[in-house]
């Protein structure tokens, strides 16, 4: 019994020490991995990106009323800081079939002409309207979403400040105004 009195505290101490193989993440590392700002964007039949309410660092101005009577705010800019992580979640609200009304969200590299990009994208139906020969011009993109579908992409905002174009490459949507700027400052 006397030996057991000395062994129990020693065993408890050794069990509490563990193998020392894994180091817990610092609070800063945990915060960095968890800090992803989500922006919920809605693609509507009027070929516009809209949001339900103005959020932090979203530039919205005019209101769009859908054929169903719902009102949304037109999304024209997204402001972000270099290196910030953004999750873009795009939902298409439409009663039309996906072949007639689908939306995606494509972020182009700085300086890429969105009009010439979308001209080539119209020919890329088999690749969800992302031209295979121009993938180096794209920072990130979602898949194509038909009515009631949601797609998303997580992107790290470029380090270089400037205005980056984002757009929908479904035929005719860019020309109709389904576009905006990611303002990195």
From TrEMBL:
SUPFAM superfamilies: Cupredoxins (SSF49503). Keywords: Copper, Electron transport, Metal-binding, Transport. Pfam families: Copper-bind. Residues 91-185 form the Blue (type 1) copper domain. PANTHER family: AURACYANIN-B (PTHR38439), OUTER MEMBRANE PROTEIN H.8 (PTHR38439:SF2). This is Blue (type 1) copper domain-containing protein. It comes from Fodinibius salsisoli.
């Amino acid at each position: 019994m006397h030996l057991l009195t000395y062994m129990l505290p020693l065993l408890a101490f050794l069990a509490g020490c563990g193998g020392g193989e894994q180091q817990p993440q610092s609070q800063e590392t945990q915060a960095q991995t968890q800090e992803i700002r989500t922006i919920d964007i809605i693609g509507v039949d009027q070929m516009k990106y809209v949001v339900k309410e103005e959020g932090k660092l979203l530039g919205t101005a005019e209101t769009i009323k859908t054929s169903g009577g719902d009102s949304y705010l037109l999304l024209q800019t997204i402001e972000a800081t270099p290196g910030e992580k953004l999750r873009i979640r795009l939902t298409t609200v439409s009663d039309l079939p996906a072949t007639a009304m689908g939306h995606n969200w494509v972020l182009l590299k700085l300086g890429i002409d969105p009009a010439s990009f979308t001209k080539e994208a119209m020919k890329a139906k088999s690749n969800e309207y992302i031209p295979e020969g121009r993938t180096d011009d794209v920072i990130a993109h979602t898949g194509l979403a038909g009515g009631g579908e949601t797609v998303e992409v997580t992107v790290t905002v470029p380090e270089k400040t400037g205005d980056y174009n984002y757009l929908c490459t479904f035929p005719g949507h860019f020309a109709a105004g389904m576009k905006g700027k990611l303002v990195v400052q």
